């Protein structure tokens, strides 16, 4: 699973779920509505700046705060192909996988990238190409990759009728 | 970062922490070690007005039409009542219909209030329970020794269908509160002091066990405040040993838990990732400055922060002890001009008790608006949303940018005493400066 070269949008540390999807947008679960609200805690025009497949690069503790699944849904719906961060908040990481948004921890790639750079990510091989260099990360477990490839946990279950012990996760 | 499971690692020689005990039991294992990924049986699945609708949608998308065990599921759909708009009214109606169709008895959508305060009040938590909750402040349940893990709506849909989920066993950080707290230093200040030490990700992926004589000196209601803020430190869950006070609290609510405590006590040689001691005698009334719950300083050190709104309430500080503190401070005083003071009891039980005790009258006399029970303005949904020029002091748990409304609004987190002092003074001050 590889993302084509795409534009990098850079964010800092502790980007929380109130900034990604403020409370007032949570009355809807419609991805099209949430896409427009993406990062509305910081700016009104993020959606306008994103092309399908673009990447978010961020600092520490990305997605901290609430359990709202609306946050990774909004990021996926606005067209982001993958989030690369120095580290993720636990709940956001799990939710992102479950909705089919790839999330990768790779501090070296984040440190090297600047806003507007072009980058591409190979999830299966565990490489990120950015700023003229290739960075490695520990590839995601097969069970997690399967969830991402299916587009999320529930689509995978529908397709396979799996239980946790047969997912290859535990 | 891929988190490679450590299956096949040798069993640890040392004893187990509370989290390891509880997860092992839920996984049907004698022992689990941090880093392992296990499948656990869920004792209680909890959803609310925000996470519930999406979970139900996901369940339907997966082609599932029945829940695993109706009596092990609880929906708290009345956290934001009266409804702000048609969308929420329709969503809550759909949740009620789902509960009726699935015969889920624990469906609370009649204005009872908010989930984390109601769960223990309704006797739905037992020490050693493994709870999965579609809300990040699930960790509040740790104050009565239940291990509650927050999950997103998709995970919760899976749990609704199967009653199981997978968990990575966390390491545990041990926090010990020592000493005796001074005047106006409350459990909220202990929580904020801990935030200052750990930061917003110091406990990322960990369980936090809270201990110490200063914790034991607090009432159970006050301990909920501390457990509640574990998520803000990045923690997966929070736990406290159920002592006599907790057992009495539970017994009064119909939960006979005495038999279940021994099995979940941390072993004397339990392996903690780290231990932190906090001497509460050194603490002063604190605030967390905009826009991070970890940017903590004494209230006395804030200069000229003119305040426009004060909110007393939430799953952190919306219980009787909190309202009594506010009333004791505000008796005979008036809210300053230019300040809106809102009091939001966490539950209808608190609301009615506060009324019976005369607490609501004292607050109203001082100029407070008394809100119906629930979350109030904490998440920016209704009843006190902030505009761009607002400066708010709130007894909440989060002050991220945009949390309560406009992204330029500024939110300070504080205890009921500090909030009450700000309401009277019109700016942030140490409570002693106002109340003596």
Topology:
The complex is a heterodimer of chains A (170) and B (436).
Chain A: E1 6-10, H1 17-20, H2 31-37, H3 46-49, E2 55-58, H4 70-77, E3 82-85, H5 90-99, E4 103-105, H6 107-112, E5 118-122, E6 127-130, E7 133-136, H7 142-150, H8 153-160
Parallel strand pairs in A: 1-2, 2-3, 3-4
Antiparallel strand pairs in A: 1-5, 5-6, 6-7
Chain B: H1 18-27, E1 37-41, E2 44-48, H2 51-61, E3 73-76, H3 86-102, E4 106-108, H4 115-121, E5 130-133, E6 147-150, H5 153-162, E7 164-168, E8 172-178, H6 187-198, E9 207-211, H7 213-216, H8 220-228, E10 237-240, H9 244-251, E11 274-279, E12 286-288, E13 296-298, E14 309-313, H10 314-317, H11 320-330, E15 340-344, H12 348-356, H13 359-366, E16 369-370, E17 391-394, E18 410-414, H14 416-425, H15 431-435
Parallel strand pairs in B: 2-3, 2-5, 3-4, 5-6, 8-9, 8-11, 9-10, 14-15, 14-17, 15-16, 17-18
Antiparallel strand pairs in B: 1-7, 12-13, 12-18
Helix pairs in contact in B: 2-5, 6-8, 11-13, 11-14
Structural class by SSE content of chain A: alpha/beta
Q: C-alpha Rg of chain B, in Å?
A: 21 Å
Order of helices and strands of chain A: EHHHEHEHEHEEEHH
Question: Looking at the structure, what is the overall shape of chain B?
Answer: globular
Low-confidence stretches of chain B: 1-11
Output mean pLDDT of chain A.
89
What's the main sheet of chain B like? Answer: 7 strands, mixed
Tell me the structural class of chain B: alpha/beta
Net shape of chain A: globular
Total strands of chain B: 18
Indicate the low-confidence ranges of chain A by residue numbers: none
Percent of sequence in beta strands of chain A: 15-25%
Largest protein interface?
Answer: A-B, 55 and 58 residues
Estimated radius of gyration of chain A: 15 Å
- Which whole number gives the mean pLDDT of chain B? 93
Give the N-terminus to C-terminus distance of chain B in angstroms: 52 Å
Strand order of the largest sheet of chain B: 13-12-18-17-14-15-16
